[in-house]
Task: structure prediction
Amino acid sequence: MTSAPIYNTDFSSLKDMDTVADATRRMLADRVSDLPVVDAAGKLVGMFRLERLFAVLLPKAATMDYGMPDLAFMSDTVEQLKRRMREIEHSPVREFMTEPGHVVHPRTSPMEIVLLLYKGANAVPVVTEDGGLLVGMVAARDVLGALQSEGAR
Result:
C-alpha cells in the first residue's frame, strides 16, 4: 500500500531565492506554518518554518538552550517587531531554512506517516526516492481527510 491517497500534490513551495516577505505572504494565504524550499530543479533543499522566523525576531538569549523563559521585562512593541521583520523581509529564504526533520516517499506506508505525525511532525515533504524531487506534502489534515468516509466530507 502507498501513501498516494494521503499526501497532497497541490501544495505551495518556495524557491531558494524567494524572499522572507514572499514566504510570509504565502504562509498567510495558505494558512500553513511550514513551507518546503526547492532549488531550480525542484529538489527539496530545506524547510522555511514559522518557528525559525520567530526565533530570528527574538533576542538571542531567549532562544539559547537554557535561555530566558520570560521576556515580560522587555517593552518591545508590535511596531518594534515590525521593524525587525522589515530588516529581514528582503532576505532570501535559504538564509532561514532548516533541514526537514523527516521526509517520506510516494511509497511510504500510511502507518509510517501517521507515526511521524503522532510523534510531532507538522508538515512532511514527500520526495522521490531517486532524486529528492519534491512531489507532495503531508500533514495531519491530509490524513484526516483521507480517513473520512465519503459521506462525512
About this structure: The first strand starts at residue 14 and ends at 15. The chain has six helices and five strands. The helical segments are 20-30, 50-57, 60-63, 78-88, 110-118, 140-147. The chain has a mean pLDDT of 87.
